[in-house]
Amino acid sequence: MTVAAPEANLGILPKSDGSATFKYGGYTVTASVNGPIEAARRDEHPYKAHVDVIVRPAAGAGGTRERHLESLLESSLSQIILVKDFPRCLIQIVLQVESVPANDYVNTKLVQAGINLPIIPALVQTAVLALLSACVPMATTAAAAVIAVVPAGGSTKAVVDPSQRELETAVSSHAFVFTAHGQLLLAESQGDFTMAEWEDAHATANKICCEAAKKDGMEMILDDEKQAGPDLQAFLRSTLEAKVTEDLQWR
């Protein structure tokens, strides 16, 4: 299956401090960021800012699925945002899922928590782009990938950005979030897998999210080193460069 290249637009919502839309793998997500702003008394922390993430589904009201995603994203994003620079403040991130691959929201009230995995990369990338658009200070950026371990003959193989059909037939699936420095922020897995299969999926996701960014600009990638997926760190840089160039143009 050929997946279209990711697309992103920054600063699309004029009434928020920062905003972004991200499209990839059949998912379209729009995010708005406001903050740092004064936090309500119940959310105040004397030494750091509170990161509040709200996930809104493409159809219907949010439920357990969205609450699970919000807890994962709050934990991950709090590690890269410089929250200690803004005590007693609130940074609010609202993520609206606009479209999803076919059949993803069938019987949404009965969807198990494991189905959250495929949408995690789209939510993470949109949130990071919106935070950059809002000029929220961060220690680093982050990138995410989903890997499915599918049967292949008598063994298994790792598939990057799996389709819905591949996810249904997969032995296991894994979502990873890495910083630009290669540190693991989040790892969520479902299914039956061995440690060797998990390490193979981890290495594949790390290559997509981090290793391509470490190569020198003039270094060529050999055929046997071809990227299994998009270079997400390069995508973040090119998106921001295009936005800065557009903003600096004389009109």
TrEMBL record:
Keywords of this entry: Exosome, Nucleus, rRNA processing
**Cellular component annotations (GO), alphabetically ordered:** cytoplasmic exosome (RNase complex); nuclear exosome (RNase complex); nucleolus
Share an example GO biological-process annotation for this protein: U4 snRNA 3'-end processing
Localization, per the record, is: Nucleus
Q: Where is the Exoribonuclease phosphorolytic domain?
A: 8-137
Enumerate the GO terms in the molecular function aspect: RNA binding
* Highest taxon of source: Eukaryota
Q: Which Pfam families match?
A: RNase_PH (PF01138)
Q: Which family does it belong to?
A: Belongs to the RNase PH family.
Q: Know the name of this protein?
A: Exosome complex component RRP46
Q: Which organism is it from?
A: Coniochaeta hoffmannii
